[in-house]
Design a protein that fits this description.
single chain; 68% helix
Length: 368
């Protein structure tokens, strides 16, 4: 009878760790030869350029609002004193200096309402009432004319409050318009479909500057004599129509990605057209195009800088107004551009992170 001798198996190597900083660096920065070369080159450039940036922006920079000190360090260090000197004019434009607490409070109210609207706890029917109350307070503070506050016309609004106002209202108004136009382009009614197609193709065929120019200078020529519409309202309508046309195509792409069986299932259940769209089709379509919609929102926020051509001095225009009117500080415009670039980055980066959060939430719901 054969005997068997026990032989132990050699231990296998431990599994490769795929989590943590080092595996991430190896996988993303040194995954292959081209990636490794690009990483090394970029690191070399960073090691050469970052110390110079720190030296210019921090170590040799001037932070006090002294023109003489800034001029002495010109070309050597940054002059952040221009921000200290001109920040109120950059942030609030030509709004009366003694009343600038009003646009500050109004902007905080609007930004606070936006943040609250992004929190799921506030997704209740009374959120619309909150928005209505906020808008009443916002325009009451900005216009004034009561409770001892001086009246301020819209042509003196500017800076960050104007940027936030135009971006927020354009987004709020453009989104439902885009959904309606996207549904209209897929309608079986020729008249509705034709109108939506003409609107989208006409708006998308011209740049935003042309739309703003038409809304500000050409549109009043077609109004009855003596009739005037506030330039802020005309610009707001122009940005909304322009953004709605682009966003409508994003939503239409999501609608076309929905399988035909979803609509057939809704018909089988006896749902009406609007019930099917509201409960089945649109929720799935909008979930598919969240990145595209958020990209459109970010583009709207940045495109508000173009309203300067119609003499509305939003953040970028207010910065140019603040420095071009003072020849002493005009050479230090690059520092002012860094300042407003940081503001734009904070808003746009926040919207981008929120978009990723929504995508993660939607992926969790799909995996259930």
């Amino acid at each position: 009878m054969a005997t068997h001798t026990f032989q132990s198996i050699a231990p296998r190597p431990a599994p490769v760790n795929i989590e943590g900083a080092l595996p991430w660096i190896k996988r993303n920065l040194f995954g292959n030869v081209p990636s490794s070369i690009a990483t090394v080159v970029l690191l070399a450039l960073a090691l050469w350029w970052v110390p110079q940036l720190i030296d210019w922006g921090l170590l040799k920079a001037v932070f006090v609002p002294s023109f003489q000190e800034c001029q002495a360090e010109r070309g050597i260090g940054a002059c952040w004193g221009v921000i200290t000197e001109k920040y109120r004019l950059i942030l609030f434009g030509r709004y009366p200096f003694e009343d600038q607490w009003r646009p500050l409070l109004a902007t905080l109210l609007m930004v606070g309402t936006l943040v609250a609207s992004c929190v799921r706890y506030f997704w209740k029917p009374w959120l619309m009432l909150l928005w209505a109350a906020m808008l009443v307070l916002y325009f009451g503070l900005m216009f004034g004319g009561f409770a001892g506050m001086a009246f301020v016309a819209t042509d003196r609004w500017g800076g960050l409050p104007l940027t936030v106002l135009l971006a927020t209202l354009s987004i709020v108004l453009a989104f439902p318009l885009a959904v309606a136009v996207a549904l209209g382009r897929r309608s079986n009614l020729p008249a509705i479909k034709t109108v939506c197609v003409i609107y989208v193709e006409l708006i998308r065929g011209v740049p935003l500057i042309s739309v703003l120019f038409m809304a500000s200078f050409m549109f009043p020529l077609f109004m009855p004599p003596g009739t005037t519409i506030d330039v802020l309202l005309r610009v707001l309508v122009g940005i909304t129509l322009f953004s709605g046309a682009y966003m409508a195509e994003i939503v239409r792409g999501g609608l076309q990605a929905i399988p035909k069986g979803q609509q057939e299932a809704a018909d089988t259940l006896g749902l009406s057209y609007w019930q099917a769209q509201r409960k089945i089709i649109l929720p799935q379509a909008l979930a598919m195009v969240v990145p595209g919609i958020m990209n459109s929102f970010i583009a709207i926020f940045k495109d508000t800088s173009l309203v300067t051509i119609v003499s509305l001095y939003e953040l970028t225009g207010a910065m140019s107004l603040a420095l071009n009117s003072d020849s002493d500080w005009r050479p230090f415009k690059i520092e002012a551009y860094f300042f407003i670039a940081a503001i734009y980055f904070i808003f746009c980066f926040s919207m981008s992170r929120y978009s990723l959060w929504i995508e993660r939430r939607l992926s969790v719901s799909k995996n259930r």
